[in-house]
Amino acid sequence: MTMRNGSARSRRPLGHLRWAALFSLLLGSFSQATAQTGLLRLDTIRAGRFDMGKMWTFENPPREYFSSTYGFRADQDWFDAARMAALRISGCSAAFVSPHGLVVTNHHCVRGNIVQVSRPGERLLEEGFLAATLADERPIPGFWVDQLIGAEDVSEEVLGAMDRAASQEEREQARRQVVSAIQQRLAARHPPGEGQVRVDVVALYNGGRYSAYTYRRYTDVRLVAAPELAVAHFGGDYDNFTYPRYALDFAFLRVYGRDGQPLNTDHFFRWSPKGVQEGDVVFVIGNPGPTNRLSTVAQLEFQRDVLVPAQKAFFSSRVEILREYHRSHPTDALMTRILSLSNSLKANTGRLDALRDPALLARKAAGERDFQTAIEADPSLRERWGGLIGRLADLQQRKRAVAAEYQAFVRLGAEGTESSLVVRALAAAEWWSARHSAASTDTFAALERRLRAVEDLPPELEEAFLEARLADILRHLGVQHPVTQASLGGRTPEGAAAVLLSRSALGSRQKTVEALDRGTLSPEDPGVAFGQALWRAYTQFLSTFQALTSQEQTLAAELGRARFAVYGPDVPPDASSSPRITDGVVLPYEYNGTLAPVYTTFFGMYDRHYSNGAGTDWDLPPRWLPPPDGLDLGTPLNFISTADTYGGNSGSPAVTPALEIVGINFDRNINGLSRDFIYLPERGRNIMVDVRAIRESLEKVYGGHRIIQELLTQRLTSPNLEPGSPWRTLALPAGRSP
């Protein structure tokens, strides 16, 4: 097939890669495959060089590794340019793509904001949005964009101050004081100007090292363009964490300066006219969320047996409740919540599958033995850190004593997934305790205000959420537990929920306020009695669990110091929602007895649509049907690489050695879900929206010509949309008609 830019799709030789790196990749693939088929004994599995991943930090950039492996000069100027063009937004990543503040990210990173800026009568999440002119770009309240303007290792300063302290309390006080001093000193280096300067001091290696990241935060951010949810989230939850994939998951924003004009910036990624081919190297820059790669095997076993199953069960039950409610009460806001929770459910399912893989844990155990051997071989390291791994294992056994409580109380009180009666019951227990204690008048008044303020849920959701929480309590604590007795009283969760909602004043906000006004809310109320039993058990559990996790954090920080002493920055720290750059290669992989191609096309998107039919998760919006005139169906849509990405990398730019943007990271395949614990590039892939698909859709489907011109010429233009543009009616300023 000949693509639009004239280059034929072919297997490109990997001559620009080091053969040693490729051999290591293939060897790892063989080792994993043989372990999974039972041909390799688990006790023969060995750790790999990059098992802890490739999430490199900008304060310790892998200059020599990038340069020697990929054959270009990755000097400090290159890393600085990459750092300054990449951005952080809430929960996601993004990038400047023009000198006029134009920003690209994922649609799913801003879909809640798309709902937020929708005007009465609009359903922009469903219909899409394109601003015809600068004046039509819609301000997003409360939104911010952070540009990383400095990265510095401050470990010696922070750890030195902490080590001089005599007690744990003094250590924490010393840490706070030195962090504050660092923040003030680094912020003072940057003169006032556009954006507020802020400094984050982040613990890395579980607290074994510290780095300071200086940002400029911009708060005038406006929505420029976003496609329909149906194409941005094409395939829905079925296709989430899968590949091949056909999602057009992108959105454009713009940062404005104090003068109300588009921000002028010298740092941005140029839009690639050619994209990528098989064998190309890409670098993905973003802010991956917390991972657990440095955890010990005992810690991972506790996650496998307790934490992750509890999270998975919680998300499974609550997602089903919300889906059932959405069938009869569809709204964009509710769909946004369901999509977020469904993503968490599938992620935890993959994490649990990974933790239950004996080969994976065997490989982690091999790496742990290597680390332990290195500590034992050095007398100074052995004296300070020799017993840490064993002490961490002992703590996991002590945490198992409260495993049932963790599972019963998982995400207790979480907004949007908890019964309002449960939230009121907990608040009422605290309120009643304060009323009969030495609590100050202000404290008591604040607790009462909180109790009065709890909003009602729709009756169907309230009943379903309450039944689910009572079922969790019964399942994990048993019939004889005081909380079970106080809440169920021998009834089923369904029966107990009906009784509590009908007989307790906490069953609604109105009844709660009336009872407080009359002074009749007391422990005789069944909801208050339930709340008191729940509050006592929950606070006792928290006290025990938090004390153990506090000890665990202290030991993990020491183990992090030991790891850095042994390996230095050759082993990157766990992800921590702090800025990282990772390298990868555009490579296919084997799955289901076949080969996953390095990219998909619009042909595949239409095939999925017509194969599955209307009304499914592969249904296309009206403006895509039939295919618009001139749309090149052979245009690459999504592509994959071995780059080490994780949650928080959504919206991350994928760039070439020339710092041209070729894609926007939006997901991983199912094999990549194990990356919470280990980086295995043999089959794990990150998935990106190809810039060629974004350009093609803007030009042939949405009429976004001014955006295309800005991306390709770096010149700011703001013409009206051409007559007949399919988005013209959505882009007109308020008060005008087509």
Give the arrangement of secondary structure elements.
Blueprint: H1 19-36, H2 63-70, H3 76-85, E1 86-89, E2 92-96, E3 102-105, H4 111-117, H5 124-127, E4 129-130, E5 138-139, E6 145-153, H6 155-163, H7 168-188, E7 196-204, E8 209-218, E9 221-226, H8 229-232, H9 236-239, E10 251-255, E11 270-271, E12 281-286, H10 297-328, H11 332-355, H12 358-377, H13 379-385, H14 388-399, H15 403-408, H16 420-435, H17 441-453, H18 459-477, H19 482-487, H20 493-503, H21 509-518, H22 526-567, E13 580-585, E14 589-591, E15 594-596, E16 599-601, H23 602-612, E17 636-641, E18 653-655, E19 660-668, E20 686-690, H24 691-702, H25 705-713, H26 728-731
Parallel strand pairs: 11-19
Antiparallel strand pairs: 1-2, 1-6, 2-3, 3-10, 4-9, 5-9, 6-8, 7-8, 9-10, 12-13, 12-18, 14-15, 16-17, 17-20, 18-19, 19-20
